[in-house]
Amino acid sequence: SKLGQLVQTLLQYAPSDSEVVDSVSSAFPPMPPSQIEANKQLLKSMFTHAYDSYFYNAFPASELKPLTCQPGVFDLVKVPALTLIDTLDTMVIMRNYTEFARSVERLRYLDNRMKHEYQSSLEKSEGSDRRRDGEQGGLFSLNVNVSLFETTIRVLGGLLSAHQMAGAFLANQVSKSDV
After folding, report:
1. CA-based max dimension of the chain
2. For residue 144, what pLDDT is reported?
3. Which of 7, 17, 69, 97 stands the most exposed, by the fewest C-beta atoms within 10 Å?
4. How far apart, in whole angstroms, are the C-alpha atoms of residue 92 and residue 101?
């Protein structure tokens, strides 16, 4: 068949894994350790600047508008504190365990506050009960249209990776003195 011939031709001329590694290695010479360390520090300072700016100017909004330094709503997701959820795993990767723990508590506080506000609004409303079955309010109990893709990668992905990283705490892979 023509498809089989095409696959055979591609396999015949495709480079092996070692050839790919060799071509990449020759194109990019090894980076000196001092440059690697300088790059790590630059990335850490850039992340810290953006993260601190978000908290100073926008928290608990879902995002910080970079040009105006004003809080914004990420229209595709519309979840409060979206930036915080999305950066939880980065804090652990950068070994900022204290801020990771602090951020988890901020999310817990925000969720509890939203639940309280929801309950208060139900008590103040007259007439029929507007609550859906089992709804208690909170951070993830918003009745809004969202982008499935953006919500999956930013909210679900952020929470799952943060949960995976938090597992390192429970397994004593991170020293309590680092927190």
Report:
1. 74
2. 80
3. 17
4. 9
The Cα 114–Cα 97 span in angstroms is: 26
Question: For residue 28, how many C-alpha atoms fall within 13 Å in the half-sphere facing its CB?
Answer: 5
Would you say 94 and 58 are in contact if contact means Cβ atoms under 8 Å apart? no
Residue keyed to tokens 């507007």: 130
Name 71's Cβ contacts closer than 8 Å, sequence gap at least 6: 57, 58, 59, 61, 63, 64, 65
Q: How many C-beta neighbours within 10 Å does residue 44 have?
A: 13
- Burial state string for 138-154 with b = 16 or more CB within 10 A and e = fewer than 16: bbeeeeeebeeebbeeb
Q: CA 106 to CA 95: how far, in whole Å?
A: 19
Q: Which residues pair with 70 in a beta bridge?
A: 65
Amino acid identity at 43: L
59 contacts 81 by C-beta, under 8 angstroms = yes
Per-residue pLDDT of the chain (179 residues; tens, 9 = 90+): 655 665 665 555 555 655 555 555 566 677 788 888 888 899 999 999 999 999 999 998 988 898 898 998 888 888 888 899 999 989 888 888 889 989 999 999 998 888 888 777 777 776 445 555 556 778 888 778 888 898 899 899 999 998 887 887 667 666 666 65
| CA dihedral angle for residue 10, residue 11, residue 12, residue 17, rounded to 10 degrees | 120
